[in-house]
Amino acid sequence: MSQPDIARIAAETRTIAVVGLSPKADRPSHGVARFLQGMGYRVIPVNPGHAGETILGETTYATLSDIPKGESVDMVDIFRRSESVPAVVDEALKALPGLKTVWMQIGVMHEGAADKARAAGLTVVQNRCPKIDFPRVGARGPARG
């Protein structure tokens, strides 16, 4: 993934569904989501073990399909094991019509699911972290206007 691609993702994204977001402040998913919120992105937590609870001030949903239909999600950030990615991508393709990007965190990769997402017109990032990559490209949060 090139730096211009990362910069484009950072600018065109406004809302990020974080699959596997933990309510525990010491977990990487929590730190990344908190960082993204601090940059101005809206984070929607997705974690079946904490559905209905509030994480980082946002209601947590059990699945991507449970996110209300009026919400526009631009990016799905996956904090799950690689073998869980195909089911997450399948659900995202069905439940999130405005989705632009599937982002798999460091250590998370699945070529089959990535190919399926790309075939559906999505940008796919694997084995990377927006908390690391967005600052590297000088991203300042969602584009305004």
TrEMBL record:
Domain of life (superkingdom): Bacteria
Pfam family, one: CoA_binding_2
InterPro entries: CoA-bd (IPR003781), NAD(P)-bd_dom_sf (IPR036291)
Domain spans labelled CoA-binding: 9-108
UniProt xrefs under SUPFAM superfamilies: NAD(P)-binding Rossmann-fold domains
Protein name: CoA-binding domain-containing protein
Gene source species: Paracoccus chinensis
